[in-house]
Design a protein that fits this description.
Layout: H1 2-28, H2 34-81, H3 83-100
Length: 106
């Protein structure tokens, strides 16, 4: 999905650049005052910048969530593989069973 977002944004920005180039053509035709064409140019650039910022921010937040989930999983795997933790879990389970009378005393 991420590559699709980048692809769509690339296409969007390309289209905005084309629209800006067409504004240059209109500006040269002197149909409207240059200030009016400049206002349109600024609005197009503002819309493009806002869209880029919004969608890239969303992608960035998704990446951060994935990174944090990966780090949690890695820490959990490291903890589970730690011999001390394994021993403590077994000892705790044995104590619980002993308290319940499920494990014969050695």
């Amino acid at each position: 999905m991420e590559s699709r977002i980048y692809s769509v944004l690339f296409q969007f920005n390309h289209e905005v650049e084309q629209a800006l180039a067409e504004l240059d053509t209109l500006d040269k035709m002197d149909l409207e005052p240059p200030e009016y064409v400049q206002q349109i140019r600024v609005r197009f650039q503002e819309v493009a910048a806002n869209a880029n910022s919004y969608f890239i921010d969303r992608v960035s937040k998704q990446k951060i969530r994935k990174q944090l989930a990966g780090e949690r999983e890695r820490r959990q795997q490291e903890e589970e593989a730690n011999p001390d933790c394994i021993y403590l879990r077994v000892a705790t389970a044995e104590d619980i069973r002993r308290q319940r009378g499920c494990l014969l005393a050695r």
